[in-house]
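Bumping with the actual sequence this time:
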Amino acid sequence: MSKETFEDALTQLEDVVTRLEDDSVGLEEALKLFERGVKLARRCRTQLTQVEARVEQLLAEAAEGEEPATRPFVAEEA
């Protein structure tokens, strides 16, 4: 899961939620899906927090009159 994008993780999380809403899912499968959903939600939250911190840094640099130091986003392992 470390190389997937935020969008990939979010799509998978949406799929998990859809499957959990299906009445035909058994208890054991529902538990596995829930566990997977929690991991995906944490990953998404971590990535969003990192992006928010980077945006704040860029805004601070811009406010100080500095040229923002742009660089590719690389998610850190959670």
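The tokens above came from a reply further down the thread. The radius of gyration is 17 Å.
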